[in-house]
Design brief:
The complex is a heterodimer of chains A (141) and B (509). Chain A is of the alpha+beta class and 141 residues long. Chain A has helices at 6-17, 24-37, 44-59, 74-88, 120-131, 135-138; strands at residues 61-68, 92-99, 107-110, 114-117. In chain B, strand 11, helix 4 and strand 12 form a beta-alpha-beta unit. The chains are: A alpha+beta (141), B alpha/beta (509).
């Protein structure tokens, strides 16, 4: 049997999920069975990411994980949603917020395949790599 | 630390901070699903381009670069440019939006760098004004001019019989330990000695670091290192770096070619380069072909060597001459990679183990070596004495088998054999002693005129040395004029022949 690409699989799952004649639990059962039969259980998380991306493309609903050093206020949340809408073209945005103090400041927003990293920790890391390491260290020697 | 360096450092960090600001935005990310043997398979990054640089977050928080070679529907195969032990499955990968680049420019002269332009010689950082693309299209037909200027190697046998022109690609091919690198090294040294202004680029592909160190030391001792760039990779480096090294060297050479200068690039050697590419291709699960090399191994070398060219006057008339080296197994030049590179290049210098052990060094097989375009670039001076040399040697080789029956041979055959033996003796040349134009003319002219025919074989070298010493000490101006490359006039020829006759008489049996 010809191997079906994950992207094609995700497209089919999203179209089935949006079909009101088929129950969502049945679709998920079918997906789980498919992954088991084709020995792709370890790729389940990647398939879910593909489904999330396909869902955003087809249904215009974007799901994003937001990590920030401090809790987001309403203004920041609105600004972030507007930015994501403008950048991705999604109609609705769902933010899943989490606090990560190691970021020091700023936010990291992750969708299925894109990322917005404004954290101070990343910037400092980039500066360190660019200026405070010798070429030998940069090569890992 | 001086004031200036503090200011420089400050402005540099300021520029990086500005760059960080502009980088901010939604960027595509991928996830490493598998990693091993220097190859990472990355999920996502659907918009990554071929050869695009990808940054992978290492386990120690430091980024590791890779470049995308296999673009497939669900994942991409990327070859790591660093240590694969620092990358774990699940690591995030980012697109850089650019293909692999290396620093180029005169700042690299005198330095030993890796294929990404990072210094390996401990002489401080290299700050160039420009970067060059590792993969770049070769100049088109209308951008080129036919090869017409000589690139003197300083080796009598090459400059006379297999002349190389600026912009030519001449393959040096032979078994291990036959003097392939020695020819390349002598050619580099000659560029310094003759003050040709040609920039040397030596690309060591998977060479022992001790060998590279010796070579650099020699170049320094000969005073040629200031006009040389060495790109070094050792067998311990990842295959990706070995694969990139020749392209990086070419990018550095192209800078000089495109800026009205002349450069010489030596790829030592392309057999190891093909093997590194085979390793990468097999790990990327590309289908193996003949000798397990991938189907595009010809294109691997043809696109590389096509970038060596002589540009037309409109583009500055610069040139990039390539001397690729190929190592054969037991003299088999009909193997896959040797035949490929032979067909790509404009000729080959074939070195034979037998000749090497007979003491004929450089061990060039005159019959199998050829230069397809170089003769139009040969200097008139050398051309005037080398016209019949190939023919004389070819006739000698045919007759050489009869030398053991020498008593039964007619006078004419004996003469040809004797002439051939003396010519062969004269073409022997010690390493690190390239000859200038006047030395080549003064050596060959008496030989082809038969002046050395009565000199015993074991005294040929001494006779040659005595002649050169006399001519230089007594007729320096004339010899300097001869080195300009013009065809020697009758007076100069007579002068050389008369001096040669006097000296030969002293050594004659």
């Amino acid at each position: 049997m010809r191997k079906v690409s994950r992207r094609r699989l995700a497209q089919v799952v999203v179209s089935l999920l949006s079909d009101k004649k088929v129950s969502k639990s049945h679709v998920l059962q079918m997906l789980a069975a498919y992954l088991i039969v084709h020995k792709q259980q370890k790729h389940a998380d990647l398939v879910l990411l593909d489904i999330a991306r396909e869902y955003a493309t087809q249904q215009g609903h974007l799901y994003a994980d937001v990590a920030s050093a401090f809790p987001l206020d309403a203004a920041a949340r609105t600004e972030l949603s507007a930015y994501l809408q403008q950048q991705t073209g999604a109609r609705t945005i769902e933010l899943n917020e989490a606090i990560n103090t190691s970021l020091l400041a700023g936010v990291i927003v992750r969708t299925s395949d894109e990322q917005l990293d404004t954290s101070a920790a990343t910037k400092l890391n980039r500066l360190t790599t660019a200026h405070l390491t010798t070429p030998r260290e940069a090569r890992g020697e | 630390m001086t004031d200036v360096s503090v200011k420089e450092l400050s402005s540099e960090i300021q520029a990086t901070i500005e760059q960080l600001k502009s980088e901010q935005g939604l960027e595509q990310i991928g996830i490493v699903t598998r990693i091993g043997d220097g190859v990472a398979w990355v999920y996502g990054l659907t918009q990554a381009g071929f050869n695009e640089v990808i940054t992978i977050e290492g386990t120690d928080g430091k980024p590791i670069e890779a470049f995308a070679l296999n673009l497939m529907e669900d994942e991409i195969g990327a070859v790591l440019l660093g240590d694969d032990s620092k990358v774990a499955a699940g690591a995030r990968a980012h697109r850089s939006g650019k293909v692999v680049e290396v620093p180029v420019g005169p700042e690299l002269l005198g330095r030993v760098v890796d294929p990404l332009g990072r210094p390996l010689d401990g002489a401080g950082p290299i700050k160039t004004k420009q970067n060059g693309l590792i993969e770049r299209a070769a100049p088109g037909v209308m951008d080129r001019k036919s090869v017409h200027e000589p690139l003197m190697t300083g080796l009598l046998s090459i400059d006379t019989m297999i002349p190389i022109g600026r912009g030519q690609r001449e393959l040096i091919i032979g078994d291990r330990q036959t003097g392939k690198t020695a020819i390349a090294l002598d050619t580099m040294i000659n560029q310094g000695r003759q003050k040709t202004g040609v920039v040397n680029i030596y690309v060591a592909v998977g060479q022992k670091l001790s060998k590279i160190a010796r070579l650099v030391e020699r170049l320094k001792r000969e005073g040629v290192m200031e006009q040389t760039i060495v790109i070094a990779t050792s067998p311990a480096d990842p295959a990706s770096l070995l694969y990139l090294a020749p392209y990086a060297g070419t990018a550095m050479g192209e800078y000089f070619r495109d800026n009205k200068q002349h450069a010489l690039i030596i790829y030592d050697d392309l057999s190891k380069h093909a093997a590194a590419y085979r390793q990468m291709s097999l790990l990327l699960r590309r289908p193996p072909g003949r000798e397990a090399y991938p189907g595009d191994v010809f294109y691997l070398h043809s696109r590389l060597l096509e970038r060596s060219a002589k540009l037309n006057d409109k583009l500055g008339a610069g040139s990039l001459t390539a001397l690729p080296i190929i190592e054969t197994q037991a003299g088999d030049i009909s193997a896959y990679i040797p035949t490929n590179v032979i067909s790509i290049t404009d000729g080959q210098i074939f070195l034979e183990t037998n000749l090497f052990y007979q003491g004929i060094r450089p061990a060039i097989s005159v019959g199998l070596s050829v230069s397809r375009v170089g003769s139009s670039a040969q200097t008139k001076a050398v051309k005037s004495v080398s016209g019949s040399l190939r023919l004389d040697l070819a006739q000698f080789r045919e007759l050489a088998a009869f030398t053991q029956f020498s008593t039964d041979l007619d006078a004419e055959t004996k003469k040809r054999i004797s002439r051939g033996q003396r010519l062969t003796e004269l073409l022997k040349q010690p390493q690190y002693s390239p000859m200038s134009i006047w030395e080549q003319v003064a050596t060959l002219l008496p030989a082809i005129e038969g002046v050395f025919d009565d000199v015993p074989m074991d005294k040929i070298a001494a006779t040659q040395q005595a002649l050169l010493a006399t001519l230089w000490s007594e007729h320096k101006t004339k010899m300097k004029d001869l080195s300009k490359g013009d065809k020697p006039d009758d007076a100069t020829k007579d002068l050389i022949l008369s001096e040669a006759k006097k000296i030969a008489k002293g050594y004659a049996a």
